[in-house]
């Protein structure tokens, strides 16, 4: 399926695009709120500036995808693979990323206010300047992550692995 087909079908009211191969698709600036992309292959997809609020991306493959400035408010990305994805300045407020693989991803300047990242793998990710106010990172793997200048106000870091992480004040966690 190509971008034009998907956008036409979405405009006609279709919302279920689960298990579809959309590898490398360009959906920059697309308005796809509430779309079902469960188990969809979006490897290296371009979704910069897209509105995916309330989208279902459970166990989706978003490895190396470009989600720069995308809106993913209240989106469900549980178990999704976001390895090496660009989520810089994305809005993931109240999104669910339980058990997601966000290893080596760029989340600089992203908003993760109230997001649930329990058990997520954020190893070696760039979270510089990210807003994590009220986020739940219970049991998350943040080894080697860069949290410099991040806002961790009311963030639950209980059970999180912060070994080698750069903390908001610039110190390295032992």
Describe the fold and architecture.
By secondary structure, this protein is largely without helices or strands. The chain has one helix at residues 3-11. 54% of the residues are buried. The model has no long low-confidence stretch (mean pLDDT 97).
Features:
0% strand, single chain, 174 residues
Topology:
Layout: H1 3-11
Radius of gyration: 15 Å
Q: Helicity range of the residues?
A: under 10%
Describe the biggest sheet? none
Strand content: under 5%
Number of strands: 0
Mean pLDDT: 97
Alpha-beta classification? little secondary structure
Helix run count? 1
How far is it from the N-terminal to the C-terminal residue, by CA?
A: 48 Å
What form results from the Cα inertia axes? elongated
Q: What's the helix-strand series? A: H
In short:
The protein has 174 residues and is mostly loops. The chain has one helix at residues 3-11. Helix content is 5%, strand content 0%.
């Amino acid at each position: 399926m190509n971008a034009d087909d998907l956008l036409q079908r979405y405009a006609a009211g279709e919302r279920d695009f689960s298990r579809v191969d959309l590898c490398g698709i360009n959906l920059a600036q697309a308005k796809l709120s509430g779309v079902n992309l469960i188990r969809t292959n979006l490897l290296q997809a371009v979704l910069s500036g897209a509105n995916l609020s309330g989208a279902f991306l459970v166990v989706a493959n978003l490895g190396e995808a470009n989600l720069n400035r995308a809106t993913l408010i209240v989106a469900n990305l549980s178990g999704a693979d976001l390895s090496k994805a660009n989520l810089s300045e994305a809005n993931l407020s109240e999104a669910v990323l339980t058990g997601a693989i966000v290893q080596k991803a760029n989340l600089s300047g992203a908003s993760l206010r109230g997001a649930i990242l329990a058990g997520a793998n954020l190893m070696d990710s760039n979270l510089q300047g990210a807003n994590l106010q009220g986020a739940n990172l219970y049991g998350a793997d943040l080894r080697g992550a860069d949290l410099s200048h991040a806002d961790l106000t009311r963030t639950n870091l209980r059970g999180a692995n912060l070994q080698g992480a750069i903390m908001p004040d610039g110190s390295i966690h032992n």
